[in-house]
Write a structure and sequence with these properties.
The complex is a heterodimer of chains A (113) and B (121). Chain A has no helices and nine strands. With 113 residues, chain A is mainly beta. In chain B, the strands form two sheets. In chain B, strands 2, 4, 5, 6, 9, 10 and 11 form a seven-stranded mixed β-sheet that branches. In chain B, strands 1-3-8-7 form a four-stranded antiparallel β-sheet, with no helix packed on it. Chain B is globular and about 40 Å long. The chains are: A mainly beta (113), B mainly beta (121).
């Protein structure tokens, strides 16, 4: 399985909205509504932000939303805040074989200007 | 309250075998649907999924590392162990364990703080 494709970096000003794309294939993103997104601040463990394409865990701001179309999933952050500056990773279920259960994206660095 | 904590050596020599232990609380791996996974992250690089074990002792591995990885569990101790053989400097990374949830065990809802493993002679 190849890593999912994300832009290396995105940026936005406070209050603006940004979208991070995550492109996979018909074997992963395109086949299952099982995409998740993680936020990672420097030196910290990843934090689940979105699961099953568009669901938010309890405690995650509703400024974070997810969607999917075909082989591409997207994470949108509205009303950008300084604390949103972090790395973001997408992840997709890749099938029930013994190998490559899930696949991660290469990560996107979000800069809040 | 779900917590996970990774433990193991901070430094290993090339060709050695790495053994990492994930000790968790707040859930049981004997409960149907529960899974634990290992994910690593080389310095400055992306997350990489390594392996997963479920409540039924089914095991899943990364294709690229399958010949070097073994995952196991000790339900009575609430522990999951990952071994990786023939360590190389490129395996230098922070290794995380995480609880896996959802349909098809598709997302990681709780993570340990990670443990940095450096491979050097």
């Amino acid at each position: 399985q190849s890593a999912l494709t994300q832009p290396a970096s995105v940026s936005g000003s406070p209050g603006q909205s940004i979208t991070i794309s995550c492109t996979g294939t018909s074997s992963d993103v395109g086949s299952y509504n099982l995409v998740s997104w993680y936020q990672q601040h420097p030196g910290k463990a990843p934090k689940l932000m979105i699961y099953e394409v568009s669901k938010r865990p309890s405690g995650v701001s509703n400024r974070f939303s997810g969607s999917k179309s075909g082989n591409t999933a997207s994470l949108t952050i509205s009303g950008l805040q300084a604390e949103d500056e972090a790395d973001y990773y997408c992840c997709s279920y890749a099938g029930s074989s013994t190998f490559d259960h899930v696949v991660f994206g290469g990560g996107t660095k979000l800069t809040v200007l | 309250q779900v917590t996970l904590r990774e433990s193991g050596p901070a430094l290993v020599k090339p060709t050695q075998t790495l053994t990492l232990t994930c000790t968790f609380s707040g859930f049981s791996l004997s409960t149907s649907g529960m899974c634990v996974s290992w994910v690593r992250q080389p310095p400055g690089k992306a997350l990489e999924w390594l392996a997963l074990i479920d409540w039924d002792d089914d095991k899943y591995y990364s294709t690229s590392l399958k010949t070097r990885l073994t995952i196991s569990k000790d339900t009575s101790k609430n522990q999951v162990v990952l071994t990786m053989t023939n360590m190389d400097p490129v395996d230098t990374a922070t290794y995380y364990c995480a609880r896996v949830s959802g349909p098809a065990a598709s997302y990681f809802d709780y993570w340990g703080q990670g443990t940095l493993v450096t491979v050097s002679s």
